[in-house]
Amino acid sequence: MNKINPGVAIVTGASSGIGHATANALQSAGFRVFGTSRRAIAGKSDGVTMLTCDVTDDTSVSQLVDDVLAETGRIDLLVNNAGMGLFGAAEESSTVQAQALFDVNVFGVFRMTNAVLPTMRRQNEGRIVNVSSVQGFIPAPYFALYASTKHAIEGYSESLDHEVRPFGIRVALVEPAYTRTSFEESLATPDQLLDIYNSSRAGMKAAVRKAMEKGDTPEVVAKTVLAAATDPDPKRRYTAGKTARQVSFLRRFVPASAFDKSLRKQLGLPV
């Protein structure tokens, strides 16, 4: 992978939102891009070859990687973007629902990563960029299970980076804040709603909607993914957008009690 020919990239969840913007940004930067979607999208879109892949299915993931290798012979970059959200109090979701969430957001990343690592090791180079969230390093009331998946990806990515670095492979995290996508509309609903949370849940939903309206565009996140993908000396974390940078700074330097109070105030929760 070099500036003249960046190489071959796979972007999961590329049919819309951050994934779509990322695939386009990489293609414009010279990558040959294969985007994935769970449902079939035929042919090419803006120069991006779209393929079907269900990241919760081992066979589907293996077939995707085999198809890309059969056409290109190499994989230089994997952007793990596919994911789903879940909004509700932690105890409102069954274990089965929580497992389904982790199967996409965490084990989907594991499957994709394990599928490309042998090729990247043979090449003695490669880059893996995992799209996380500021909710991967701060508390997220009413997004507890979703935030748990992102916390898991943060720990996994940092640890994996140390393991694969001797093979010329680097792993980086991109951490957006609120982004103007269809994320809010596609949030899963808990499978056992409890009346005791109705008022707080409704208030939190209103706060999220307001924040989403002022959020960054997917292109802002895509620009950060491109930086993480091409940085010759990659950092392990890249915050995407002004809000994400502010939250990261405050989390590191503001006393825990003050951060906790500010968080609850901003989310409309009793302080």
Automatic annotation (TrEMBL):
Signal peptide (residue range): none
Keywords assigned by UniProt? Oxidoreductase
InterPro entries of this UniProt entry? NAD(P)-bd_dom_sf, SDR_fam, SDR_oxidoreductase
Q: Does the keyword Nucleotidyltransferase apply?
A: no
User: Per the similarity annotation, which family is this?
Assistant: Belongs to the short-chain dehydrogenases/reductases (SDR) family.
Name recorded for this polypeptide: Oxidoreductase
Q: What is the organism field in this record?
A: Mesorhizobium abyssinicae
Give the taxonomic lineage as stored in the record: Bacteria, Pseudomonadati, Pseudomonadota, Alphaproteobacteria, Hyphomicrobiales
